[in-house]
Amino acid sequence: NWAVLVVFGLGSLLLVAATLRDRGLARLVRWGDARPTTILLGIAGGALASAPVLAISFAHALEGRGGVVALALLPALAFFAFAGNLAEEVFFRGFLQGRLERAMSGVRAALLSGFLFAACHAFLATTVTAVGWPLLAFTLWEGLICAFLRLWRGVIPAAIAHGLAIFLLSSALI
Fold first, then answer.
1. pLDDT tens digits for 4-39?
2. What pLDDT, in 10s, does the model give residues 103-153?
3. 3-state SS string for the chain
4. What interhelical angle do 155-171 and 74-89 show, nearest 10?
5. Other Cβ atoms closer than 10 A to 103
6. Residue 151 contacts by C-beta under 8 Å, 6 or more apart in sequence?
7. What angle do CA 127, 130, 132 make, to 5 degrees?
8. Mean pLDDT score of the chain
9. Cα 170 → chain centroid
10. Which residues contact 11 (CB under 8 A, 6 or more apart)?
């Protein structure tokens, strides 16, 4: 339902805005810039993150992967994917990775951020879905890509990569 996707996306944006009102947390977020190269890195990161799952999914018919997504639903799905995953990136790469970088090197902070991101998806992998360890492997892969994008260029390309990867995997366009 497009309305549910929009409401959840708006809720994610409101949560981020409310959390960023805390100046201590807001100082941890290194946004980076929105230069074309930064945006292209985010797009490349999203393509790289989704590539293994998309490659495996080509072995199965579209119906076996959830079926066709109505074209009218795609804008709401894209909004939800980018808004919802902006929230995850602000929390994991902004707050968590930003805080970890105060205690350790940037590379170690990125690695730990990626592993903690995957660990926080254990409930999703084992209870909400029946996917199990492959979902954890995907979230580790995606989390490490986003963590290193954040290390190199900030939260902006990490959020673009995360949102694009989830949109590509959920839209059935590929």
1. 999 999 999 999 999 999 999 999 999 999 999 999
2. 999 999 999 999 999 999 888 878 877 778 888 999 999 999 999 999 999
3. CHHHHHHHHHHHHHHHHHHHCCHHHHHHCCCCCCCHHHHHHHHHHHHHHHHHHHHHHCCCCHHHHCCCCCHHHHHHHHHHHHHHHHHHHHHHHHHHHHHHCCCCCHHHHHHHHHHHHHHCCHHHHHHHCCCCHHHHHHHHHHHHHHHHHHHHHCHHHHHHHHHHHHHHHHHCCC
4. 140
5. 9
6. 97, 106, 107, 109, 110
7. 85
8. 92
9. 13
10. none
The residue whose two tokens read 């999703």 is 124
User: What's the pTM value of the predicted model, to 2 decimals?
Assistant: 0.92
The structure tokens listed for 50 are 């989704």
Residue 16 contacts residue 86 (beta carbons within 8 Å): yes
Q: Given this model, what pLDDT does residue 72 score?
A: 87
